[in-house]
Amino acid sequence: MGGLVAWLVGVVGLFIAGVWLTFWSPSKSVARPTLSGTALSSLAAQMERAGWASLSPKATIGAWLGFSMLVGAMVWIVWPIAVLAPLAILATLFMGRAIVHSALSARERRLRSMWPGVVDHIRQAVRSGAGVAEALRLTANRVPPELHSPFHTFTADLERGFLLDEALTNLKGNLSNPIADRIIEALRMAHEVGGRELPAVLESLQSSVRADIAVREEALAKQSWIRAASKLGVSAPWLVLLVISGRPETLAAYSSASGSGLLLAGAAASVVAYRMMARLGRLPEDERWFAR
User: Fold this and answer.
1) Helix crossing, 178-193 with 198-244: angle to 10°?
2) Which one-letter DSSP state was computed for residue 25?
3) Is residue 250 classed exposed, middle or buried when 0-12, 13-18 and 19+ CB atoms within 10 A define those classes?
4) DSSP string, 210-227
5) How far is CA 127 from each of CA 25, 31, 164, 185, 206, rounded to the nearest angstrom?
6) How many whole angstroms from its chain centre is CA 239?
7) What is the pLDDT averaged over residues 242-259?
8) Are 155 and 140 within 8 A, CB to CB?
9) How many angstroms separate the Cα of 31 from the Cα of each of 9, 20, 53, 56, 108?
10) What's the pLDDT tens digit per position in 23-49?
11) What is the per-residue pLDDT across 174-207, written as a single tens digit (0 to 9) for each?
């Protein structure tokens, strides 16, 4: 019992330290070092795309690792089956990855729904007689808050003396969005060859973007049952196990070698089944045809 208490104290301390570093670390005001080719850099990129750029990836991993160990300790206290605590720790760690992906998908859907309005602002500015640069300057003050930074950076680039083509390239890189690529390339072409037909082109682009969003949202709605079924299919057997594990004979059965092997096999089957169902219910991501 003393060893378990010491473990709990250490886990709680690690969790609190990780949370403190995640939200109050001074590193969020310092430029983040480049970690190319590592899992940490991939996590940092995903957190940035999810809107969590101010959080430190290392501290976030530490906080979630501490929380996972705390969950494992609580599972061991309530259900003293040797194999359940490590499985709970692994499940909590994978849940953290799922949370990041869920936030990333939600933000991408939210940003996708904003683009028709952005195109409409640009089209109105162009129809009022503004050039490409001036139209984007005016749009910078009308875009949703999540797009403020890239558009204001574009305005700052022009004020620093950048050529419009270079500023558009930087804007496209900062937005990193397939729909934004199409808009910027249309504006670039209008600037190079003349923009008499630009309002009509933007109107056509706006209609195309709205149609793409409608088709994608309809597909997501129809495939939502696959994701719901995968979550229900994975969680149901484990919920039943937790319900019946209060009986002493159940604890004794699953604490044996054969019972632990059965739990490990069930966990492996759950992971494989969930991954297959998740892949079936996932739509392909939009490709950036004009990324360069």
Assistant:
1) 170
2) -
3) middle
4) HHHHHHHHHHHHHHHHHH
5) 47, 40, 20, 18, 15
6) 28
7) 82
8) yes
9) 34, 19, 11, 11, 24
10) 444 443 334 444 444 667 777 777 776
11) 887 888 888 888 888 887 776 677 888 888 888 8
